[in-house]
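Thread amino acids onto this structure.
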């Protein structure tokens, strides 16, 4: 379990699922079911179209909202893009940056991730920065090298204070939506490596404060073993967050033992 200084953090990434009406229905049921769960930061990331409605439905609850991406410019001739200030105004407090699907399907580079992380902070949003290796990279033994590059390039320029606020999600790409999950030991090893690099490159205190999430086919059946790893502070949940009951159970199992 994470140290007392780091509050567990669980985010549900809905990807391209749920209409506005479906979102409002979900949020109303979900907030009622998690209202008494303390000691965990709970975040939902609906599609852009449902973000404002979700924020309204979650108002005055213990559920916060995240956007699934952003563009690094505040405004301009960027058809189809959404900026940090727009996201903040819609009611989000967080934004997912560098998700593997953005990297592999839409060409987000480490430099794009760096610019998006900076834009998120500039807009008053907390980035959830995603990193992770492909199956080929893992099988070649390159996992740590890939993670080092993504951390060094994607988080370049952050201050110690920003790093302490940042949330980092380790998502082995080979486990995203495949049903394959890193073993608790594999997840723990990667998280310990990431924590070590953050401490080394940004300082011991901010490196220790930064929360590290595991993402990749997280479900009710495996969350307890994952969250038990020393440097796993929570989860970025995909498919299992689409069902209220499943996501409530995952959130509940991430509570600190004393809560």
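Threaded sequence (259 positions):
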């Amino acid at each position: 379990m994470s140290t007392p200084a780091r509050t567990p953090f669980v985010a549900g990434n809905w990807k391209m699922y749920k209409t506005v009406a479906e979102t409002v229905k979900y949020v109303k049921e979900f907030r009622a079911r998690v209202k008494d769960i303390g000691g965990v930061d709970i975040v939902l990331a609906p599609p852009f179209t449902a973000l404002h409605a979700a924020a309204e439905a979650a108002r005055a609850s213990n559920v916060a909202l995240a956007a699934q991406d952003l563009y690094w410019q505040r405004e301009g001739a960027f058809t189809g893009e959404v900026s940090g200030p727009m996201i903040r105004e819609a009611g989000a407090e967080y934004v997912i940056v560098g998700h593997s699907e953005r990297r592999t399907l839409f060409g987000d580079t480490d430099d794009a991730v760096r610019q998006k992380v900076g834009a998120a902070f500039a807009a008053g949003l907390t980035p959830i920065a995603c990193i992770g290796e492909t199956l080929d990279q893992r099988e070649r033994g390159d996992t740590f090298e890939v993670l080092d590059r993504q951390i060094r390039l994607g988080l370049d320029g952050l201050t110690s204070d920003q790093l302490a606020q940042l949330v980092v999600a380790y998502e082995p790409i080979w486990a995203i939506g495949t049903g394959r999950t890193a073993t608790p030991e594999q997840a723990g090893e990667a998280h310990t490596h990431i924590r070590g690099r953050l401490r080394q490159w940004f300082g011991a205190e901010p490196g220790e404060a930064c929360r590290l999430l595991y993402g990749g086919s997280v479900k009710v059946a495996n969350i307890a073993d994952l969250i038990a790893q020393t440097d796993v502070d929570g989860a970025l949940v995909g498919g299992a967050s689409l069902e209220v009951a499943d996501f409530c159970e995952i959130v509940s199992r991430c509570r600190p033992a004393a809560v």
